[in-house]
């Protein structure tokens, strides 16, 4: 099988930020003795949608030596994994229970304990049947996806590989870098159950935008006190639901919303959202939401007249922000609003610095946080100094979405149709049809300004391609809409039905914005959950050297 062949430039922003925050020892993943394949046998069918169309992909009549070898290796590894000795020490210490019901589960618990040092997180990994893998980079998840494809005979479904270790590391890094700022995950960005449960276990709060999101989080057992209903213009039905379910905090930015609150429930704790645009943000939000700072006094006075309780200020600098100074200015403006509110007799207690963060890893797998944390910490120290008598204790929260979601997931889309056309200059233009498109995960191109990168993965059941040339190609989505085109005129090697494209960093604003147009279930992709030792692949040379060392050791052992 040929590994990735085409890599488009990465679209990640803030990459210039140096990586100063390293994964602390707590989040360092151990568990080298965890048999990576132990859970796969029991997991594969459960983690895949039950209605997946089956073909004989994994049992290709003309199975090549490569695919036969792959299957044989997987079977041997599975058999070996099932009889691995169980190291139950740390697991028993956490769980405080007797022997685990079966060997593989006991081993998993043991490994999870060492991975996380956190019983609730370990439970999430168990519940989502996470497979332990070495790397969550494209090479690492590609291996998982291929095993999954073979085991489940998948040939016409997109697959999401969700690495729960990525948001885990990002959460740890966030808490270390900005200890004053508690993240309230923006559910809208990626309401992925594994990620939501993990963040609950880690102690995050949640930013919900609707009755649906509130309901989802409350049903997962989140206390209403850990939720902010961060929508400045709420539907009354959503409002009613929030009130009936004990949600206390909500945002506003207009007089009209204040009247709505007064009518619905004057007990709500109101957070005034102010405008704070980063002109460099990929998705600016200020045109739609956020009161101008100059409008704040009038809004606060109206709230006072209506007998409402204003308790804080929020802002959002725009999604995928770039300019650090925007945060400083916004925090300074928030302080002005706090002071204004104080002059009207309000004692505000909440500062919500919104979203806009990107979460990426450097080549060593460290979270790249860098200057943004220093900038925010410095601005908080200046404008909201702890213990300041005029302010009292101000709680600081943020609403990151993309930060936790983006790197967590890798999307795999098979090629399900091809066409060659001779164009004017006599060259061949290739068309490929994929299982995902603009109505599915790639709505991110339209709504989120993304320019997703991709790599080619060759079919695990077909021989190596003989055509090694590159062609100008178009990648079509699967619906009947001719506007459903993912990329036009990109250079690609010749693809066949059954080859795949791998799309890294596919967690944020992708499947969350999909619909099921044409009756295609874009909103419920097939999923595989993993937990990686590192969020990036090791350098290729390092991996090859380790592989060679392993082969030499096996050879030497065989000769003895
Ligand atoms: C109110 C609010 N909070 C938080 C977010 C999450 O933003 P991001 O994903 O940039 O962190 C959004 C995104 O649109 C938002 O509208």
Low-confidence stretches: 1-117
- Which range does the strand content fall in? 15-25%
Please tally the β strands and state the result: 19
Structural class: alpha/beta
Mean pLDDT: 81
Number of helices: 17
Q: Based on CA inertia axes, which overall geometry fits?
A: globular
Active site: 480
Cofactor: pyridoxal 5'-phosphate
EC number: 4.1.1.17
Protein name: ornithine decarboxylase
Q: Can you walk through the features of this model?
A:
This protein has 560 residues and is an alpha/beta fold. Among the domains are: 241 residues, Alanine racemase (TIM Barrel), CATH 3.20.20.10; 99 residues, Beta Barrel (Lyase, Ornithine Decarboxylase, Chain A, domain 1), CATH 2.40.37.10. Helix content is 35%, strand content 19%. It contains 17 helices and 19 strands. The strands form three sheets. Strands 1, 2, 13, 14, 15, 16, 17, 18 and 19 form a nine-stranded mixed beta sheet that branches. Strands 3-4-5-6-7-8-9-12 form an eight-stranded parallel β-barrel, surrounded by six helices. β5, α10 and β6 form a beta-alpha-beta unit. α3 crosses α4, α5 runs antiparallel to α8 and α9 packs parallel to α10. The N terminus is likely disordered. Bound molecules: pyridoxal-5'-phosphate. Pyridoxal-5'-phosphate binds next to α15.
